[in-house]
Amino acid sequence: MKEVKIRSMISFDWAMKRLLRQKANFEVLEGFLSELLRRKVIIKHIGDSETNQEEKDDKYNRVDILVEIDNKELVIIEMQFYSEDDYFKRMLYGVSKTIAEHIYLGDDYDKVRKVYSINIVYFDLGVGDDYVYHGITNFTGLHTHQELLLDKKQRTVYEKEFVGDLYPEYYILKVNNFNDVANDTLDEWIYYLKNNKIRDDFTAQGIEQARKKLAFDNLSEREKRQYEREIKDRVIRDSETRTAFREGREKGEAIGIKKGEAIGIKKGEAIGEQKKAIVIAKKLLKSGMAKEDVMDATGLTVEQIEQIIIKS
Predict the structure, then answer these.
(1) Is residue 282 classed exposed, middle or buried when 0-12, 13-18 and 19+ CB atoms within 10 A define those classes?
(2) Cβ–Cβ < 8 Å for 121, 105
(3) Contact (Cβ atoms closer than 8 angstroms) between residue 229 and residue 219
(4) What are the tens digits of pLDDT across the range 42-81?
């Protein structure tokens, strides 16, 4: 059996920040998008977004890239390495902001651009065991259950079939859920996203270009130093995050134990006081004292006094 080599590559997020914005490297990103969207994608322009800064105080936990493809549709690609509880809402905000920024005051609504939101996440987002999710907006009849279509004129103007085709689409790639078995060409890309490696037998669109242009050995000496420094910084941040999580959990457990002990003591004291009151109530009732007077003397309820009488 022929041995299959697995080549080590630079990470996709670093490539997006440093290499894939260059026109000569568009074919790498075009290949990835073509496999994900299941159609041939040609990149017309790649723009910067607010998180594509290189300052020290940058939002290091995500990389945004805004792509305009040949049919004037827009693609947002975000990578998220650390858990964020409101990430679903951030996806919505990112799409809404992009739509608003690409239409001008006074423009007709037919100028609203179609947006694809592609989210590559390295944490467990939501509950689900798949590793690729696709979200679309469909309009379905409540009674007929038929999907709402565009009329003939609208199909000509928009070059779409369904009303939902005009609305944003969302893709979520839960990379860590992937089991490293590439069953199709999209899986080959996800294998790379997870492992920073590409097998020699992979044939996905753009994968050969990625193999050539994103190999660590093909970087300049300056790029190699930058890449190694960034990987080292990420390892440190990962360690800090794990440490903070562990310390927080330990502190929470300690506080919980202390509170539990305090509650247990108070509960024990309350039980002890009640037992004393019951003993006193039994003696007072036996001496012939009225129930109401026993209640006043011991603080017990009428139900508790009745139970003592029944059991006596």
Answers:
(1) middle
(2) no
(3) no
(4) 999 987 654 444 444 444 444 589 999 988 899 999 998 8
Full-model pTM: 0.70
Which helix (H) or strand (E) segment holds residue 135: the answer is strand 132-135
CB-CB contact of 285 with 302 (8 Å): no
Cα gap 167→154, rounded to integer Å: 14
165 exposure class (CB count in 10 Å sphere: 0-12, 13-18, 19+): middle
Tokens of 15: 């490539």
Cα dihedral across residues 13, 18, 21, 27: positive or negative: negative
Q: Residue 45 has which token pair?
A: 């322009």
Render the burial of 43-72: b for 16+ CB within 10 Å, e for the rest.
Answer: beebeebeebeeeeeeeebbbbbbbbbeee
Rg, the chain, Cα only:
32
Q: What is the Cα–Cα distance from 170 to 119, expressed in whole angstroms?
A: 8
Structure tokens at 228: 């190694």
For 125, list phi and psi in degrees, rounded to 5. Answer: -90, 120
Q: What one-letter code names the amino acid at 203?
A: T
Judged on CB neighbours under 10 Å (0-12, 13-18, 19+), 86 is: exposed
Start-to-end CA distance of the chain, whole Å, equals: 88
Residues 9/210, Cβ–Cβ less than 8 Å: yes
Q: What are the φ/ψ torsions at residue 287 (nearest 5 degrees)?
A: -80, -5
Rounded Cα gap, residues 121 and 103, in angstroms: 29
Q: Comparing C-alpha atoms, which of 126, 4, 121, 104 is closest to residue 63?
A: 121
Determine the pLDDT at residue 128.
92
User: Distance between CA 126 and CA 12 in Å, rounded?
Assistant: 23
Q: Using CA atoms, how far apart are residues 312 and 288, in angstroms rounded to an integer?
A: 13
